[in-house]
Amino acid sequence: MSKEQQNNTDKIYIFDTTLRDGEQSPGATMTLEEKLQIAEALDDMGVDIIEAGFPIASNGDFAAVSEISKRSKNSVIAGLARAIPADIDRAGEAVKFAKRGRIHTFVSTSPIHLAHQMKKSQDEVLEIVTKTVSQARNLIDDVEWSGMDATRTPVEFLARCTEAAIKAGATTINIPDTVGYSTPEDYYQLIFDIISMVPNSDKAIFSTHCHNDLGMAVANSLAGVRAGARQVECTINGLGERAGNAALEEIVMALQTRADALPYHTNIDATHLSKASKIVSLAANFPVQYNKAIVGKNAFAHESGIHQDGMLKNAQTYEIMTPESVGLKQTSYVMGKHSGRHAFKKKLAELGYELGDNQFQEAFVRFKDLADRKKNVYDEDIIALVDDEMGSAGDKIKLLELEVVSKTGGEHRCFIKLDVDGEEVSLTENGEGSVDAIFNAIKKAVGANPHLLLYGVDAVTGGTDAQANAQVRLEMNDKIVSGRATEPDTLVASARAYLSAYNRLLVDSGAAAQGAMSG
Ligand code: KIV
Ligand code: ZN
Questions:
Q1: Contact by Cβ (8 Å): 506, 474
Q2: Three-state SS across 326-344?
């Protein structure tokens, strides 16, 4: 442990893995630009360590980790590596430009992984730990070692691996609940036992990494902290494999709001949380569940009469933290067709958006168009409209025209005109229903047949004039991507959501290679 770490024993280091474990969520593939934007937001918010990717997984991942390393201001930049020499070298190469870089190497330790996946004995794994951590330590001073599936590993063996990793030079030891199986009591005990049993444990920082399969990732991480862990691995919006990872915003706000019960602090400026959540949701094309703690649309909404009455008398009656504390700005006025350019700009600033001139102009034209069709344009409408505008910038294929004819019990026909990389393509196609006809028409126009994994629509606000928010998830050549679009018309939203996903399929970001690893 460094001097700084020893002097800060109540400090919890926040290790964000949105760009690595988060990106492993099916459909959450992000472009390089999006990853850079997220890394900048994490750095500005005060994240101590950003796990920027898995450099050996693809050229795209390598480029993201090395570019984020070059640009990082304060955060340590980590690259993930399996316990394989080529992985470790590649991770070392990717993080070498960072002011402070880290190699994070992992190997499975549980009997079930050893028997079925690794086909190795415990002694062989111990040897691998020493060799790989030593190799990483020869490349860089900051090395993290993780025992994959640690929570299903006999504690004596995990302790031996931990001792060997620290002896070989690991400065952080991560104890992952890879399959989200632990309870807070189990996890507390495991961290406590490992720290107590390992003779050189004072030479490393211990870390939590909890998955949310049973909905206990945050509770488990906090139990780990109480037992002595001083680093928490987490993701924005809880993004991650399967049910996701512990949510960064929940960890941070639990520590901030319940400092009486959890007397620790982080370096995070919580007023950046809402904005970061929005950026990640948009980049990963993963909507945030309405009632998600801290960053959900309803997290600070009070609907029942009794609650509203209490809130009007004193906000503390039903509010344990303020919306402002997580960066939500209370905006005062509803926009409409008489609102001009100046009011629109002011509203965007209140909602936390900074648009370039061209993007502002495009968003303003769409806002005026919407205000002509809809009496009141609410904040939710503007957020959806701007997110849509930002999300579709740079698309190669754009919708120019759509006409759908649907008859009860009869045919469903779609005429579509697309701009395909500067060329107009138009045709007519039939389907089992309106949306089927639209998707068939797009597939024919682009000459591809991706597998549709998900299609859904919800309304941005109430009322029959509400905008529709459509979501589409597609799979092709082992790559899964999601797309979203918001439009006053449900069918146009559906067509644009399909195109948004298809445009992502055209961008190579190495999702296929990532599918090869777990956790
Ligand atoms: O869940 C897990 O075990 C992981 C490791 C790679 C740390 O993500
Ligand atoms: Zn994981």
A1: no
A2: HCCCCCCCCECCCCCHHHH
Question: Considering only CA atoms, which residue is closest to atom 5 of ligand 1?
Answer: 519
**Least distant ligand from the CA of 104:** 1
Ligand 1 pocket: which of 178, 182, 241 to mutate (most atoms within 8 A of CB): 178
Cβ 179 under 6 angstroms from ligand 1 = no
Report helix, strand or coil for 429: strand
Nearest-CA neighbor of 232 among 217, 242, 244, 243? Answer: 217
- Long-range contacts formed by 257-260: CB under 8 A, 24+ apart: 257/320, 257/321
Please give the distance, rounded to the nearest whole angstrom, from the Cα atom of residue 386 to the centre of ligand 1. 35
Task: Give the orientation angle of helix 217-226 with respect to helix 248-257, to 10 degrees.
Answer: 50
Q: Ligand 2 center to residue 405 CA distance, Å?
A: 47
Residue 45 Cα to ligand 2 middle (Å): 22
Quick: pLDDT tens for 433-482: 999 999 999 999 999 999 999 899 988 888 888 899 999 999 998 888 88
| Secondary structure (3-state) at 252 | helix
- Protein residue whose Cα sits closest to atom 2 of ligand 1: 519
Burial of 171 (0-12, 13-18, 19+ CB in 10 A): buried
- 109 within ligand 1 shell (Cβ under 6 A): no
Burial class (CB in 10 A: 0-12, 13-18, 19+), 461: middle
Encode pLDDT of 205-225 as tens digits.
999 999 999 999 999 999 999
CATH fold for the domain made of 397-518: Double Stranded RNA Binding Domain (3.30.160)
- Please tell me the distance from the alpha carbon of residue 304 to that of residue 298, in angstroms, as a whole number: 13
**Ligand with the closest atom to the CA of 153:** 1
pTM, 2 dp = 0.83
Question: Residue 92: CA atoms inside 13 Å, Cβ hemisphere, count?
Answer: 18
Domain ranges of the chain: 3-284, 300-329, 331-391, 397-518
Distance 148 CA to ligand 2 centre (A): 8
Say if strands 397-406 and 49-53 run parallel, antiparallel, or are unpaired. Answer: unpaired
CATH of domain 3-284: 3.20.20.70
What separation in Å is there between the alpha carbon of 148 and the centre of ligand 1? 6
pLDDT higher than 90, residue 276: yes
- Report whether residue 58 contacts ligand 1, using a CB cutoff of 6 Å: no
